[in-house]
Structures are given as C-alpha cells and as structure tokens.
Specification:
The protein has helices at residues 2-18, 140-144, and strands at residues 25-26, 28-31, 40-48, 62-67, 75-78, 82-88, 97-102, 109-118, 121-132, 147-150, 153-159, 168-172. It is mainly beta and 177 residues long. A five-stranded antiparallel β-sheet has the order 1-6-7-8-9. Residues 1-20 have low confidence and may be disordered.
Length: 177
C-alpha cells in the first residue's frame, strides 16, 4: 500500500511539472537558448542567504540563473525570488529569449526583464519594467503574455497606473543591441 501511495504521489508531481506551460515557466525551464536546436535547462539558484531584515541594515538573499550547458554564462539576478519564462524567439536570431519575473525586497511590485544570448553574453532586450501585483499572484498565462513579438517588433504589457483599474497598455521595447 505504501509503495502505491508513493507511486501516485510521484505521478501527480511529475504530471504537474510537465503541465506547466510545457516547462516554459517556473524556477526551472527549458529552451533553445543557444540557437542550435538543443534543449538547455535554465534554473534559479540562491547564491547568498539573507541575514536579518534588508530594510533594517540586514542583507538580502541573492539569486542567479544557471544553465545546464556551460556555454551559457550565469545571469546574476540579485534579490529576490524569481520565476523564469521562456519567451520563444523574440528577435528572430534562432534562439529563445528568457524573462526574469522577480519579487521585490519588500512590497508587491515585481520587475520583469528579458534577455537574449548574443555573441556570448546575456543582453537585456527588454529593459526592466514594473508589475504591480496588489500582492496577488499572476497566472502562468498572464506572465507568458507580458512580453511578445508582433510584426517583427518586441512589445511588453505594462499597467497604466493613471487609470482606475490599472489597464494594461502595450509598449514597444527599446533594445540595446
């Protein structure tokens, strides 16, 4: 009986992981980040534990994104918890881009930044923008739809805080590469 329960628990966990937008969102995702057609795993690692309260002279935890292929340099992400998003190929270079949805040190306004691996380095192709959450969680679909390609241009959705309900507005990303 115990082995049947263990099997069922593992099956449910495995099913849940595979259904997460086909491993495109989470603390561990897969993608064609090198543009060679091979899947590489990206994962979040805590590189430094927090000590005390960062708001009161403590030090925050630090995070980094690492990859299963050593050709991809880690992305130093700083504080705090992270959700990774495989954005697909936004800039038509043959490789997938990666967004980092990151918790604030304090409060409910998250940041999102999108990177592309260009000439051996991770380059921000969508500058960080804020996502006020009202301390509510977002669905995976909502996160996946925040950065997108339309007519060969990259856009992101940002809340218009001048409106009563914080309507989402489409903004064209300015790239640095």
């Amino acid at each position: 009986m115990k082995s049947i329960i263990t099997f069922l628990a593992i099956s449910v966990l495995t099913f849940g992981q595979n259904s997460k937008l086909e491993n495109k969102i989470g603390e561990k995702i897969q993608g064609n980040f090198l543009g060679n057609g091979k899947k590489v795993t990206a994962f979040v690692i805590k590189t430094k534990e927090a000590t005390g309260n960062p708001i009161e002279n403590g030090t925050p935890a630090e995070f980094e994104i690492r990859f299963s292929d050593v050709k991809l340099k880690p992305i130093k992400a700083g504080c705090c918890e992270i959700i990774l998003i495989n954005e697909g190929d936004l800039n038509d270079d043959g490789s997938d881009e990666i967004s980092i949805y990151q918790a604030p040190m304090n409060g409910c306004t998250y940041t999102m930044t999108t990177y592309s691996f260009i000439k051996g380095n991770w380059i921000k192709i969508v500058q960080p923008f804020l996502i006020p959450t009202g301390c509510e969680s977002f669905s995976e679909k909502d996160l996946q739809n925040r950065v997108f390609k339309e007519n060969k241009a990259i856009y992101f959705l940002e809340k218009d805080m001048s409106t009563e309900n914080g309507k989402l507005i489409k903004k064209k990303a300015t790239t640095n590469h």
